[in-house]
Amino acid sequence: MASTTMTMAKALNEGLRRAMEKNPKVLLMGEDIGRLGGVFRITDGLQKDFGEDRVIDAPLAESAIVGTAVGLAIRGYRTVCEIQFDGFVYPAFDQIVSQVAKLHKRSEGVYTMGLVIRIPFQGGIGAIEHHSESPESYFAQTAGLRVVSCATPNDAYWMIQQSVEHDDPIIFCEPKSRYWEKGEVDLEGAPRGLFEAEVRREGRDVTVIGYGSSVKTMLRAADTAELEGTSLEVIDARSVAPLDLDTMARSVQKTGRLVVVQEAPHTASIGSEIVAELTERCFYSLRAPGLRVSGYHVPYPPSRIEDDFRPSVDRILDAVDRTMGYDS
Amino acid sequence: MIDEELVQLLTPEGLRNVNPDYESTLGRDEIVGLYRDMVIIRRLCNESTSLQRQGQLALWAPVQGQEAAQIGAGRALAPKDFSFPSYREHGVAWCRGVPPEDMLRVFRAVTTGGWDPQKYRHSVPTVVLGNQTLHAVGYAMGVQRDGAEEAVLTFFGDGASSQGDVLESFVWAASFNAPVVFFCQNNQWGISTPSSVQSRIPLSHRAHGFGFPGIRVDGNDVLAVYEVTRRALENARVGGGPTLIEAYTYRIGAHTTSDDPTRYRIDAEVEVWKHRDPLERVKSLLVREYKVNKATFEKVAAEAESLALKLRDDVLAMGRPDPITMFDHAYAAPHPLVDEGRREMVELGISGGSH
Description:
The structure holds two protein chains of two kinds.
Chain A: E1 3-7, H1 8-22, E2 26-30, H2 46-50, E3 55-57, H3 62-74, E4 78-82, H4 93-100, H5 103-106, E5 116-121, H6 136-140, E6 146-149, H7 153-165, E7 170-175, E8 182-186, E9 198-201, E10 206-210, H8 214-227, E11 232-236, E12 239-241, H9 245-255, E13 258-265, H10 270-281, E14 291-295, H11 313-325
Parallel strand pairs in A: 2-3, 2-4, 4-5, 5-7, 6-7, 10-11, 10-13, 13-14
Antiparallel strand pairs in A: 1-8, 6-12, 9-11
Helix pairs in contact in A: 1-7, 3-4, 8-11, 9-10
Chain B: H1 28-53, H2 67-76, E1 82-84, H3 90-96, H4 100-103, H5 117-120, H6 131-146, E2 152-157, H7 164-176, E3 180-186, E4 189-190, E5 193-194, H8 195-198, H9 206-210, E6 214-218, H10 222-237, E7 243-248, H11 267-274, H12 278-290, H13 294-316, H14 336-347
Parallel strand pairs in B: 1-2, 2-3, 3-7, 6-7
Antiparallel strand pairs in B: 4-5
């Protein structure tokens, strides 16, 4: 059994290594990713092993990191771009939305935009401003892009490889607060499909859906709820664009109750989309409206008070109580 | 207009100009060829403007006045090189072999692309200013990794020169010594914004600050543009790194058919530039130096005329696409939301089915 314990950071590192070993056209590009190994050390040691031509220390300009990756894609390379922090992706927004997302279409299928844009996202590490944001809905809104997020080391290891191999551009959101948490990684098993959700814990009463850092928080909430006699079914969305609505709907048809958890504010969010879609699909099964537990509609707060902004076990349980309070 | 830095091999009167650094390498037939290219692209451009005025195109971006800049640069490319245009490079597309009707598909609003960019080694139009310069540098970095002797040529204008992407592409090209040539057509007007608002120094000077050569060429002199671009591309192919070429020229027409240049510039300025016409000076040279006869010019004009008529027919034959085609190539792999949209369109009877 080729299973081993490692952190999510190490799992990403190993996944990238394996992707580079498999395909010599795979390149990494980003700020400080070579000699330093990235500010989170995700690419630690890769430049030493694969050389400066394949692990490229980029000048500090995000639009160019993504824009040159587009040109490399046209030439047949597959570049994994590292954006250092979520709040620094916006200078690249134009290239991502106007070019990365649209060039396959504009070239009538001739260009393959097989590139991955890795973004450490969400908060929880006590950082200063621009280092804790959740920009995933901006990208989910844009046709031509796909957005995924890993929540466990095993998913990190496999999903990064699947993303590199995929022919569509992928925004790969990494929950930075979980980088240093360990888990089992099955190095040989057949991975789950990249765009499939996964039921992390089965339950009867309420379906709770989230992704990234929220998955662990939801599981903790489920532990507590169980002590109080409420059974939560916890779903890790994994792919936020497209959403695996079939898996989610199956659960909601069983439980009749839905709570969605995310760090992003809820207006026009992934959570809003999940609630709208599941309301349409599961209308006659629902016993209460779907509720969202989100970040508040304010700029990300100073990190001394971030734990009162990010969805907590208590806030999830409060939403569970509210949804259980609807009688039908 | 004439300044000391400007590389010019042919005066507006069609007289040879001796330049210590550049010599024209072209003979009679090749110059006739460049003249033919310019006549054809001007004629096709005028036909396109007419088609727009007649309601057959949604928009047209005229190239008149910039024929020498585009043909000179386009013909300097080797077949294996790759070029990245903005949206006005019809002359370059012509040199790359893109069929004229394919250039007009975007303007007929039946597609967002128009041609196979890998087949012609000429990328699809880029409307967001300057985005393509980064694609060119990235492509050039791929060329380096392949160990290939190829160069990349990318086009932008004086307006786009203020865009962050263009300046970032200069940084990248310099840092990685990428085999790329930046070709800036300074046609002096970004819609209504004069180039003096974009830069207080000649745009070619910017290259020096990034650590690579910048050359200012008379953009209305096809011989000079050809030689300057050819040498920059050659230099790039053998590892000499990037060059910025500023082709100093003038947009005789409107920015696009939606623009009204009489609101922001005076006729006298346009008249001055009409006397610097890129076609007339080559014609003068051909008559005086090579004794090219009237029959040759008539033959070129007739060919341009027949291509224009064919273009008109081809454009008029482009019907409304089946709406279901909007779902094609949105993604490379199957996508549930695209499938859902396609299904709905068929169910509503908007389209008969998939392509």
